[in-house]
Amino acid sequence: MIKVYSKANCPQCNMVKKFFNDNGVEFESIDVTEEGVADFVKGELGFTGVPVIVADGFAPFKGFAPDTLEAIVEGA
C-alpha cells in the first residue's frame, strides 16, 4: 500500500503522483488540508511539509526523490 500525503497546487506533490500514474502504480492520495490529516503527518510521521510518501517496506519520506520512487515502483 502506498499513501501520498499532499495538497493542491503543490508542484512536488503533483510530480510524485504523476510518477506513480505514469508507472501504473496504484496509490492513495490523501489531502493534508482535510481535518486531522496535517496533525497526523506532523505528529505521527514527523513531517511538516508535503508530499510525504508512505510505502510498505520503506521509511516514510518527504519530497520528490526519484531513486526512492523508482525502488517503490520496482517493488510494486
Task: Write down the Rg.
Answer: 11 Å
User: In this structure, how is the largest beta sheet organized?
Assistant: 4 strands, mixed
Beta-strand percentage range: 15-25%
Helix content bin: 40-55%
- Separation of the first and last Cα atoms: 9 Å
Encode the helix/strand succession as letters: EHEHEEH
Contiguous low-pLDDT stretches (5 residues minimum) are none
Average pLDDT, all residues = 97
Shape: globular
Q: Strand order, biggest sheet? A: 2-1-3-4
Q: Structural class of the helix and strand makeup? A: alpha+beta
Give the number of helices.
3
Say how many strands there are. Answer: 4
Protein traits:
single chain, 76 residues, alpha+beta, four-stranded mixed beta sheet, 3 helices, 4 strands
List the helices and strands and how they pair.
Layout lengths: L1 E5 L4 H12 L5 E4 L5 H9 L6 E4 L5 E2 L3 H10 L1
Parallel strand pairs: 1-2
Antiparallel strand pairs: 1-3, 3-4
What does this structure look like?
There is one protein chain. The protein is about 40% helix and about 20% strand. The chain is built from three helices and four strands. Strands 2-1-3-4 form a four-stranded mixed sheet, with helices on one face. The radius of gyration is 11 Å and the shape is globular. The protein starts with a strand and ends with a helix. The model has no long low-confidence stretch (mean pLDDT about 95).
